[in-house]
Write a sequence for this structure.
């Protein structure tokens, strides 16, 4: 059974930074592209970023381009999201998921709150 466990969320002031991690098990991590998806309060799911199985290709939503960086460590079976220059609009539960255009397995999410 696939397991994805996110961590690293919390309360941060506007302009601050956070690094999210997603530790995985139960599937062949480096067979899959991996993604981050978020859900802001009262809104639907929003795709944030995707990384190819080998880490060579990355894609980002326009709303976070230039501020967030997705990366992965296949040896550690871990996905990361470095979030810089955070804005109040980035407040959301952040989920990691396997896949790129469609998502298979999901974690339970980690809450990021950007507020002064």
């Amino acid at each position: 059974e696939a397991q994805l466990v996110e961590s690293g969320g919390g309360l941060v002031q506007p302009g601050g930074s956070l690094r999210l991690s997603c530790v995985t098990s139960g599937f062949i991590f480096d067979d899959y592209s991996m993604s981050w998806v978020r859900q802001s309060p009262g809104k639907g799911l929003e795709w944030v970023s995707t990384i190819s199985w080998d880490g060579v290709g990355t894609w980002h939503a326009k709303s976070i381009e230039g501020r967030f960086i997705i990366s992965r460590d296949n040896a550690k079976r871990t996905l990361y999201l470095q979030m810089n220059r955070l804005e109040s609009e980035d407040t959301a539960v952040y989920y990691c998921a396997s896949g790129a255009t469609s998502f298979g397995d999901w974690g339970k999410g980690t809450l990021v709150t950007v507020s002064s």
